[in-house]
Design brief:
alpha+beta; Immunoglobulin-like; rod-shaped
């Protein structure tokens, strides 16, 4: 009897658990959202053109209409002079209501003007949810910011400069990481690439690494410190002056530049060897001096001392006048 009651209780507990799981699954399936594509916008004015457009698709998977507000703002990281971005980029509509289960298209239009400087700069498309209908159970989402890359090909200049190779001037082990500071000296967003090499006193390649493996982009007028992991290629067996060379550029067939920095390298075993050799030389000089002193002392003992010469006898004449 007790076993039967226990089985019934267990079955009831399992039923409650399964009902809760199915309820959560049903709620998750019924939940909707706002989908925006693409995640980034590119507006490029080719040479000879005065206008370009890009479309943003907005899909509403809720069961009620949703109203969205669109605005163009200047990006905080944009250091280039672009003027008022709202005067350069126009929207189809500042507010769009997307029907339940429907979609809408927002068109961005970039027109050439004197305010638009050559090269590239960035702005942001800010999308804010205003309404979600009454009783829909739809939470208001935070504002979404989509990056906008604005490019004007006329007068665009792509250029990079290396401002610093951060490394010590004295090392006791092979460098494992070298930081290179690269600056975008042009007016177009650039992705630097390159190679860092470490060579010994005889030109032997002892290490190398690739610059910007993450393909980080630099805005015009900005600089970034890029850590470069150095892969050992050979043993740095000789102490002396070593050279770090950083060859960088925009990749592809673009021209490259090279910057160099020297450092003095001596490993801990070089110090031990030097001290050992110096100690051996000091000991050798000390023993050699003792040996010379011993030879000199032995020579003095073995050489006979000459007797002084006998004094000549003087004759004395008596009784004779001088």
């Amino acid at each position: 009897m007790r076993r039967g009651v226990s089985s019934i209780v267990a079955a009831l507990c399992m039923t409650v658990i399964l009902a809760a799981l199915f309820s959560q699954t049903a709620q998750a399936a019924a939940a909707g959202g706002i989908r925006i594509a693409p995640a980034a916008v590119r507006l490029e004015l080719a040479k000879g053109t005065s206008e370009t457009t890009a479309d943003i698709s907005v899909a509403n998977t809720y069961t009620v209409p949703v109203t969205l507000r669109f605005a163009i703002e200047r990006a905080a990281q944009n250091v280039s002079h672009m003027g008022d971005p709202t005067a350069l980029i126009s929207l189809t509509s500042a507010e769009i209501t997307v029907t339940a289960g429907g979609s809408a298209t927002q068109t961005l239009t970039l027109r050439d003007s004197r305010q638009l400087s050559p090269g590239s700069q960035v702005a942001e498309l800010v999308i804010t949810q205003l309404t979600a209908g009454s009783g829909a159970g739809v939470g208001v989402q935070p504002a979404v910011r989509l990056p906008i890359t604005i490019i004007k090909d006329e007068g665009a200049i792509m250029s990079l400069g290396l401002t610093n190779i951060a490394s010590s001037s004295f090392m006791m082990r092979q460098p494992q990481t070298v930081n290179v500071m690269i600056r975008n000296t042009g007016n177009v967003i650039a992705i630097p690439h390159g190679l860092v090499t470490v060579r010994g006193p005889r030109g032997t390649l002892v290490g190398q690494g690739t610059i910007n493996t993450a393909s980080a982009a630099l805005l015009p007028g900005t600089e970034k410190s890029l850590p470069v992991a150095i892969t050992p290629m050979d043993q740095a067996s000789l102490p002396g002056t070593y050279q770090i060379s950083a060859t960088y550029g925009l990749g592809g067939d673009s021209a490259t530049q090279t910057a160099r920095k020297s450092f003095f390298y001596i490993a801990w075993w070089h110090v031990v060897e030097t001290l050992s050799v110096a100690g051996a030389l000091v000991l050798l000089a000390y023993n050699l001096r003792r040996f010379i002193q011993y030879l000199q002392a032995h020579r003095k003992k073995s050489t006979p001392v000459p007797e002084p010469p006998a004094r000549a006898k003087r004759r004395i004449l008596v009784g004779r006048n001088a």
